[in-house]
Specification:
Low-confidence stretches: 166-181, 183-211, 218-238
Order of helices and strands: EHEEEEEHEEHHHEH
Mean pLDDT: 79
Number of strands: 9
Largest sheet: 5 strands, mixed
């Protein structure tokens, strides 16, 4: 399930989602997606992000059929949905950068792929506004759930290491397609300078949509289970 944080600033937004508020304990989502496309893992299992929503919507998500209007609050979504909080003011003016939306698409596709979702339809990925009456997130210039779902569905038609569509940066002419593990192995065997490359002492705090293959955006714990609850879904967050 995709949300906007109604905050600005990456560090403070990540801290808020991890620690929670005085009236709502953290974690407030499973991952925070920054403006630059970095995905921060802040929780696993149940997280307080979805709230109560429409059980008919949940049934449609599980069946991967068209979503009905959300007009009830009869079901606790926190036990069923993954959630991604995306740094945005939510005022319908704050722009969603392309890197951030691409990270939403890749993270959602990664979870769908890990769970085998997305084979019968594209509605395993939803926005908060499609779950709970009165919610508007995500909103603002640069994002729509229809576009996100379309792009997730397109990614799922390809291998996780592939970038569907144009893989060339129009400004630089460089190939921006993520490099697969097979290509890396081949390069290491054939490139003498590869032996001179030093490994970083530790992994960076987050992966950006531009540098991480989709498969690396899924935490191993997420791969091992169906989701936060018995009917876990990538409601975005999924």
């Amino acid at each position: 399930m995709i949300h906007h944080t109604v905050t600005s600033g990456t560090d403070s937004s990540v801290a808020l989602c991890y620690n929670g508020r005085s009236d709502l304990p953290g974690p407030l989502c499973h991952g925070v997606i920054a403006k630059d496309g970095t995905v921060y893992l802040v929780g696993h299992g149940r997280a307080n992000h979805a709230g109560r929503g429409d059980g008919d919507v949940l049934a449609a998500v599980i069946a991967e059929r068209d979503l009905p209007a959300d007009n009830e609050t009869d079901t606790d979504g926190n036990t069923h949905f993954y959630g991604f909080e995306c740094v945005n003011l939510g005022d319908n003016k704050d722009t969603w950068p392309a890197a951030q939306v691409e990270a939403i698409v890749r993270a959602s596709a990664a979870l769908c792929r890990a769970h085998g979702w997305g084979k019968d339809g594209d509605t395993s990925v939803i926005g908060h506004l499609e779950w709970q009456p009165g919610k508007v997130d995500p909103r603002g210039p640069g994002i729509s759930m229809g576009d996100v779902r379309r792009r997730v569905a397109e990614r799922l038609r390809h291998d996780a290491d592939c970038s569907p569509g144009d893989s060339t940066d129009r400004e630089t002419g460089n190939d921006t397609r993520p490099v697969g593990r097979g290509e890396l192995a081949t390069a290491a065997r054939t490139e003498p300078r590869a032996s001179q490359v030093r490994r970083a002492p530790q992994a960076p705090p987050g992966w950006t949509a531009q540098t991480a293959p989709e498969a690396l955006l899924v935490h191993p714990v997420w791969r091992a289970s169906r989701g936060p609850g018995t009917a876990g879904r990538a409601g975005s967050g999924g």
